[in-house]
Amino acid sequence: MPTVAQIEQALFQLAPKDLAFDWDNVGHLEGSPDQEVQRVLVALDVTENVVSEAEKLGCQLIVSHHPLMNVRWHQAEMQTLRPDRYLGRLLRRLVKADISVISMHTNLDIAPGGVNDALAEALRIEDPGPMPGDETGLCRVGRLRNPVKLSDFAGEVCKALHANGVRYAGDRPVEYIAVGGGACGDEIDAVIAAGCDTFVTSDLTYHQFLDAAPKGINLIDAGHFPTEDPVCAKIVAYLEKEFPQLIIIKSTSHKEVIQYFVEGE
């Protein structure tokens, strides 16, 4: 059976390590590189529910998108390994269960066939490609076959991504679209410069929505989880092709946690 190290190298063929942002933490983050693997669980995040699912399914490895540990997010928590703190408790559970973790993050955002190509495919955007002038390489742009109203497209985005709801602002017909899975609000000006009329991403602020119409851009915030989760199925398919002897499972315990209440519904 393949080892964790061999699976990590295969994943770096899909999403090369040198594509990751310099602050990021990608690759094999926990467990022994020599551990033999029979079952793999793929999930967007490593949560306590995901660890429980991996234990129940008898998985030796979790492959996640978001890093298990990252000093940008977990600087204080990474100073200890205490069971009364969330990260410490999670790490101790993984060690005790002998479950390894590999995380592919910003390198998978940028890589061909990664997060943003999976998002563009889910939204049926035609001929998606890198966004002109995008130095990060994150976003993808493409067109709809026919222009549609923003409200109609927002509904289609919600349905296609199985989101609990979407937030949107703007007043233009939708035709030339940029997508950026996860928190890509910093790319709005680059999206406008590329001539797009609509940007689908997540984690947008009030002021970004407020400025959307004056700047001539439609914004759709479809949620962090819904815009990135489509890549998990791509990882499953890739690993099944590379390691047909393995059992690869997409997590069913990890779902969108944000709920919406809309008055009158």
UniProtKB/TrEMBL annotation:
Q: Which residues bind a divalent metal cation?
A: 65-66, 109, 224, 228
Extract the Pfam families matched here: DUF34_NIF3
Q: Superkingdom of this entry's organism?
A: Bacteria
The record's GO CC annotations read: cytoplasm
List the SUPFAM superfamilies.
Answer: NIF3 (NGG1p interacting factor 3)-like
Listed A to Z, the keywords are: Metal-binding
Q: Does the keyword Transmembrane helix apply?
A: no
MF terms (GO), sorted A to Z: metal ion binding
Record bears the keyword Metal-binding: yes
The entry's family comment says:
Belongs to the GTP cyclohydrolase I type 2/NIF3 family.
Query: What is the name attached to this protein's record?
Result: GTP cyclohydrolase 1 type 2 homolog
Annotated source species: Dysosmobacter segnis
Q: What is the lineage of its organism?
A: Bacteria, Bacillati, Bacillota, Clostridia, Eubacteriales
